[in-house]
C-alpha cells in the first residue's frame, strides 16, 4: 500500500473553499428557484435541457446530460409529470422506449424562471469576477471535468 499524500494547508484551504462554495451556491440557487418559481434546481435543469432540445429527448439522453442515475431520473420525471411539466410519449424509432417532452406549462415556467435564474447567477458569481477570473474559473472547471471523464468513462 502506498503512503497517503495528505493535503498541505494551502491545498486543504482550496479544497474546503471549493466544497463550501459548491454547497452554498447550490443551496442559494435551489432556494431562489423554489421561492420565486416553485421549481427545484433539478426541475430547472430538466426543463432547461428539454426546452433547448430541437426534439423531445430519450430518457437515457436526458439522464446523460444531467449525469443522473436511471432511477433518480425516472422518479424525478414521474413527479414532474404529475405536476404537468413534462410528458412521456412513445418513441417513433423504438417502440420499447419513450421520449420526454416539455409541456406548455413547463415551457411557461422555464421561460419565467430563466431570466431570474440568470440574474441570480450574475448576482453571486459572474458580476463579481474579472474577465481573467472568469477565464481561470472556466479553465479550472474544464480541466477537472476532463480528469473526471477520464476516471469514469461510463459517465
Compact summary:
The chain has 155 residues and is mainly alpha-helical. 67% of the residues lie in helices and 8% in strands. Residues 11-146 form the HTH marR-type domain.
CATH class category of the domain at 21-125? Mainly Alpha
Fourth CATH level, the homologous superfamily of the domain at 21-125: Winged helix-like DNA-binding domain superfamily/Winged helix DNA-binding domain
Shape: globular
What percent of residues adopt helix (DSSP H or I)? 55-70%
The protein's oligomeric status is single chain
Distance between the termini: 28 Å
Count of helical regions:
6
Strand count = 3
In percent, how much strand structure appears in the residues?
5-15%
Q: H/E element string?
A: HHEHHEEHH
| CATH architecture group name of the domain at 21-125 | Orthogonal Bundle
Please outline the major beta sheet. Answer: 3 strands, antiparallel
Could you name the CATH topology of the domain at 21-125?
Arc Repressor Mutant, subunit A
Broad structural category: mainly alpha
The spatial strand order of the largest sheet comes to 1-3-2
Name the average pLDDT.
93
Question: From the alpha-carbon coordinates, what is the Rg to the nearest angstrom?
Answer: 19 Å
User: Which consecutive residue ranges, at least 5 long each, have pLDDT under 50?
Assistant: none
InterPro entries: HTH_MarR-typ, MarR/SlyA-like, WH-like_DNA-bd_sf, WH_DNA-bd_sf
GO molecular function: DNA-binding transcription factor activity
Protein name: Transcriptional regulator
Organism: Amycolatopsis camponoti
Amino acid at each position: 500500500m502506498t503512503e497517503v499524500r495528505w493535503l498541505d494547508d494551502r491545498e486543504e484551504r482550496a479544497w474546503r473553499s471549493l466544497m463550501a462554495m459548491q454547497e452554498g451556491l447550490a443551496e442559494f440557487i435551489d432556494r431562489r428557484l423554489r421561492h420565486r418559481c416553485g421549481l427545484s434546481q433539478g426541475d430547472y435543469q430538466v426543463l432547461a435541457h428539454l426546452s433547448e432540445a430541437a426534439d423531445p429527448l430519450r430518457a437515457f439522453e436526458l439522464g446523460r446530460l444531467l449525469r443522473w442515475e436511471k432511477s433518480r431520473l425516472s422518479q424525478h420525471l414521474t413527479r414532474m409529470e404529475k405536476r404537468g411539466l413534462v410528458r412521456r410519449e412513445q418513441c417513433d424509432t423504438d417502440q420499447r422506449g419513450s421520449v420526454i417532452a416539455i409541456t406548455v406549462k413547463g415551457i411557461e415556467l422555464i421561460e419565467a424562471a430563466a431570466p431570474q435564474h440568470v440574474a441570480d447567477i450574475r448576482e453571486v458569481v459572474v458580476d463579481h469576477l474579472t474577465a481573467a477570473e472568469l477565464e481561470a474559473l472556466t479553465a479550472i472547471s474544464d480541466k477537472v471535468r476532463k480528469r473526471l471523464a477520464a476516471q469514469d468513462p461510463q459517465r
